[in-house]
């Protein structure tokens, strides 16, 4: 048996499993001499006197609220594990929102555990420690330090996140032996869930997930700042796209997607969701993310995109732009109707208003225009009662926004869709009109035109603030903005 076959990596579930060698790797093994050589001669790189992450005070307050909601119960919130993309390559890791919201940490295999005490809970963050240099994991394992980069030591992690850190490889065994009531956020770490399989119930775990979703409905000051940062980068990304529309015409929608992605990666963590770069009739497909179509002068480009910050907060903005810089008469007619609907929707966003009010206000304007144009028989009240406008409006007028593009999705209906707006809530207002290319119920000149305008709106004490107001919305302002950028 070679030394390589005896080496064991630091993995959460199988700490005694030998480090895997590639079947067709060029080095079949490691000599004793090389293994010994690799153990020594390395400088001390421990980071000392680290400052806590900027949101440490906020994450502590969030954990305190969680502790108060579930006294006397062990709470387990995993970050999740790497997912294989193909063979031995993985998707870029993104920690579960619940875990990142409560810790600020974003590394794979992490688990936050709140252990019940006489008063409240004691929090521990369980992480993989730095790669082991004694067993060779740091240079032989595919997730070792020399392959994918340095992990923080447990001491460093404790300083950064303000939570005592322990070795996650010991957690599953400890959870199997633990007694007392426990809840876990499901769907992120199969190993942790298996360790708790006889201790949890789906109903109790769902209560935990719902609470954490509703906790994010009202954003704190740090979150509002991150959302504004995401929007500001997104505005610059839209400007980037307008400047290269001629190159997109020579290639495809993917040039637009790639241009925006560059801004997202330079200024943020990633895009917050798959960019929709829908030109021409593709704008009538709500989630057009193939982005492989032609970009033609005289048609419209519907660009729905958002930068995600390094702390996972995402913007979600849509503009519908004339590719040649000028709206045609029919394009302007449809665009202006959507703009009027959005204006009505934004005006309805204020503290104390029903969440549904902005949707109802926008839909009423669109229904009025459809009746006015003779596309559907009135009166408007009948159209709205029967939902007849939905043939061309299709979707709801907005959603909560935050660490997920459709944030707080697990919240109770009475707290979300049937709830009331409060200062600190952030939502999108995004009405649209979509006339499918094969829709024989509308005049031919309408067919293949899709328009959506979307902005990110913060509820304030006295009304609302449009976080994405730096991007023009009115049709004449859009034309002037595009002309200035192209000049």
From TrEMBL:
Gene Ontology CC annotations of this record: cytosol
Residue span(s) of domain Aminopeptidase P N-terminal: 54-193
InterPro entries per UniProt: Aminopep_P_N, Creatin/AminoP/Spt16_N, Creatinase/aminopeptidase-like, Pept_M24, Peptidase_M24B_aminopep-P_CS, X-Pro_dipept-like
First-tier enzyme category under EC: hydrolase
MF terms (GO), sorted A to Z: manganese ion binding; metalloaminopeptidase activity
Enzyme Commission code: 3.4.11.9
One Pfam family here: Peptidase_M24
Region spans: Disordered: 1-28
Catalytic reaction annotation: Release of any N-terminal amino acid, including proline, that is linked to proline, even from a dipeptide or tripeptide
Domain of life: Bacteria
UniProt entry tagged with the keyword Transferase: no
UniProt feature coiled coil, ranges: none
Keyword annotations: Aminopeptidase, Hydrolase, Manganese, Metal-binding, Protease
A GO biological-process term: proteolysis
Gene3D superfamilies: Creatinase/methionine aminopeptidase superfamily, Creatinase/prolidase N-terminal domain
Cofactor(s) required, per the database record: Mn(2+)
Family of the protein in this entry: Belongs to the peptidase M24B family.
Protein name: Xaa-Pro aminopeptidase
Lineage, uppermost ranks: Bacteria, Bacillati, Actinomycetota, Actinomycetes, Kitasatosporales
